[in-house]
Amino acid sequence: MTTTHPSDQQQRGTTPQGNTGNRVPRRPKAQSRAPWILLAPFLALFLLTFILPILVAIASSFTKVTRKGLFGEAGVTSEFAWFSNYAQALSDGNFVASIGRMFLFGIVQVPVMIILCTVLALMLESTSARWPGFFRAAYFLPYGVPGVIATILWSFLYVPGLSPLIDIAGMFGLEPDFLGPNTVLWSIANIVLWSYAGYNMLIIVAQLKTIPVELYEAARVDGATTWRIARSIQLPLIKPALVLTTVFSIIGTLQLFAEAQVLKTVAPSIDSQYTPNLSAYSTAFAYNDYNVAAAQAVLIAAVALILSFAFLKFSNRKSS
Amino acid sequence: MTQFTRRQLLGAGLGTAALGMLAGCATPGTASVNGGPVIAPVASGEKITLKYWSWLKDLQKVADIWNESHPNVQVETVWIPGGNSGGYQKIFSALATQGGPDLAQVEMRSIPEFMLVNGLVDLTRYGAQETAHLYDPTLWSQVSYTGGVYGIPQDSGPMGMFYQPAVLEKVGATPPATWNEWGEVAGELRKTDAYMDCFPLGDASVFAAFATQAGAQWFRAEEDGWVINMTDPATMQAAEFFDSAIDKDLVQTAYGAFSPGWFAAAAKGGLASVTSGSWADALIAGVSGGEGKWRVAPMPVWDGGSGFGSSYLGGSTAAVLANSKHPKEALDFAVWMTTSKEGIDAMINNSGIGWSPAPGFIGTTRQKPSPFFSGQNYNQEVFEPATLQQNPDWSWWPVTTQSLNILSDGFRKKATGTSLVETMSIAEKQIMTVFKNKGLSIRREAS
């Protein structure tokens, strides 16, 4: 966990690598073959199930199929289409809207998630915490519930007529609509928060545990308050974990799929292209437009890559 | 074993990748089986097993009846999720990899979509025309395209109005005969805090059925391509009617029929009726405490004397998929299942199918009064006549799912002020673009 700090890695990287060239000038054949043989099963699967599909998807995203006649009975042609599938994907208002929706979701969800899991972790690791083991398990438990099941559970709390929450709100004269066009996105955010806050909290707790006790003791001798300890010792030292959980949350936002797909059955306001992933899924398997779907998938991957790297770059620059 | 250098390994990897890319470049579904040779039936004595993917429950029990009398043609059923909730995705991906079962359940409206990816066998090549007379002509026309037959109708849903007499009585109403009367009753019901029905903004297929009833024909296959007209007077009449119903808050739009919210409201008497396909009877039987509280009336008709008495909502077929090695046997099984008395009864009793597409026999249990529906013999009273009052010209088209989604997306904007009427003409343009993107020729009906 501690080595994820990027500047750490750079420093350590220099020394051992400089040595390797001198220490082992020539290895016996068997010895140099061994790693490849041991790696072969992994490499084969990695190429077959990871690299190859990516290449096929990229190739597919540049192909266009044109049918003639009523159903293509008069001929079907496939041709290299440059960026026309990308143009078609980006001119699809619903797909663009889904990307916008995802950004909105991420801008709100990621900070809320990080703040919540940091606060939970700090509270559990503070000296005055009661039964930290129990609460740690309790907060982590939702992560053990698969996303689909979690959404079904929550949908019973969202659906009018079934939801006790709505009934209770009704007693106070409120009529919350969890599944309306403007609220359903936040209902999904709530499910995601419930599912993953405990998991992210655990990553931060693990990092908190690595802080040497001496630091706390020294701080207390100097008369630091709990708040001061959190601000000046814990937060700076758990930064690698915060970076990691933020990247997880950004990627998670881009992969939003199951929650929206399941909640669709009870929320009329969720359309078939609500999130970018749902959009690619519908385009491929409901509209049978594999080429445009491939273009959408490549676009989503590109956005994920850019966002993750931009965030890492940004957090690196701030630390140096 | 030779030693691999890193470069060789990389080369080999890239080589495999390039091969894969070549294979991958052939976008799935671009070759047709219907141009190839007809596959002969298997020789007698040879034993084969047919696979049937379907979302009907306990369908294996139906197949078992067939299996008993046909030891050489065994049918094995595999359950898949219903239609677009995952089943089609599964079938499409199986077809894309040159696999898939012999038979699959395909909704009427999705037949052209499967044809577009060359997923279906033209059954006229295996003698389907000889069985045409056994089926409802309206449904048969919905599986017939360009001289071929691409699925055997297995269930359908003539529409009627399921209602709760006690809720209607609160405002002194009886089931309305016309949509205008329906609107008046709905207005009265709003004063008692009940709704007449839902209008599903998220599922345009219901609106399509209402428009069909009014006499719409959105698509027509012509020699030179498709002809679209989604803004004809019949469709506009239906769109204007529901625009005004939603504006006056006469219909519930927060949830659709048979969703968890609907069941909760229906059980509390907050919904007076649901106009739906005949298959809704099995769903309404799931309303808690609903026994004896529901009856069935004919669907309200459109005012002005135009249109038809009913409409079909939903309905599916047993279609023979392109990669089947035994299309003739698969067709025989499908015809047995949907036209023989034992097949129909078994499908009703085990799988709870909708309306049987064979007009000769509606099913033994459906000839009797139903205790749940207040002892009403509603199948013979309401739905059997409804099958004779259908719009025969309605035809589905190759991008139905996407088109209905485009419509639903437009309907959802009703909340922000875009009327259904406006949505129809916007959607029409968008759907034409979808056709053109696929290279299919389409033109607007000259008005």
UniProtKB/TrEMBL annotation, chain A:
Gene3D superfamilies, per database record: MetI-like
Cell compartments where the protein resides: Cell membrane
Transmembrane segments: 36-62, 102-125, 137-159, 179-199, 237-258, 293-312
Keyword Membrane: yes
PROSITE patterns, per the entry: ABC_TM1 (PS50928)
GO biological process, alphabetically ordered: transmembrane transport
Domain of life: Bacteria
Coiled-coil intervals: none
Composition-biased stretches (Polar residues): 1-22
Cellular component, GO, one term: plasma membrane
InterPro entries: MetI-like, MetI-like_sf, UgpAE/MalFG_permease
Residues covered by region (Disordered): 1-28
One Pfam family cited in the UniProt record for this chain: BPD_transp_1
ABC transmembrane type-1 domain boundaries: 99-311
Keyword entries, A-Z: Cell membrane, Membrane, Transmembrane, Transmembrane helix, Transport
Topology term for the membrane: Multi-pass membrane protein
CDD domains: TM_PBP2
Family membership: Belongs to the binding-protein-dependent transport system permease family.
Name assigned to this protein: ABC transporter permease
Source organism of this protein record: Arthrobacter glacialis
TrEMBL record, chain B:
InterPro entries tied to this protein: Bact_solute-bd_prot1 (IPR050490), SBP (IPR006059), TAT_signal (IPR006311)
Keyword field: Cell membrane, Lipoprotein, Membrane, Palmitate, Signal
Gene3D superfamilies in the record: Periplasmic binding protein-like II
Signal peptide limits: 1-31
Keyword Lipoprotein recorded: yes
Protein name: ABC transporter substrate-binding protein
